[in-house]
Amino acid sequence: VIIFSRIKDEYRSGTGEVSIQTAVKSGFKKSISAIMDGNVTTLLGCLIMYFLGTSAIKSFALTLGIGIIISIFTALVVTRLLVSSFLTFNRDNPKLYNLYNKEKEEGVKATAQDEEVAE
User: Fold this and answer.
1) Residue 64 neighbours by CB under 8 Å, 6+ apart
2) Residue numbers of the domain that contains 62
3) Angstrom distance (rounded) from CA 71 to CA 15
């Protein structure tokens, strides 16, 4: 969710014509810190529970830690691979990625309406 939100933000905030690939690269770069921050914090909690807890708590902490590591790998590697491979097939249609710039589209609509009124 964080990655795709950052990609949308990058696409919408870009000045001029921002390509989808540029938005994706920038979105991934800017989302890594947020993803790692949340997951590292959870891993620290897992370590504390593992070393201070009873056997049931230790097994929970171990399972949670394994899940967090898999989640980090999936978010950073698998998602990037899937998005990059999808971009190679469908580069030019931002609506496929649910990317559109409302402000730019509204500006174009307003300009077209102003031209119609002026005529």
Assistant:
1) 42, 46, 49
2) 2-118
3) 33
d(CA 21, CA 3): 14
- Provide φ and ψ at 61, rounded to 5°: -65, -40
CA 37 to chain centre: 14
Q: For the chain, how many structural domains are there in total?
A: 1
With beta carbons less than 8 A apart as the criterion, state whether 11 and 18 touch.
Answer: yes
User: What mean pLDDT is predicted for residues 42-49?
Assistant: 96
Position 30 pLDDT exceeds 90 = no
Please report where in the chains the tokens 């959870």 appear, as a residue: 42
Count helices and strands (H / E) in the chain. 5, 0
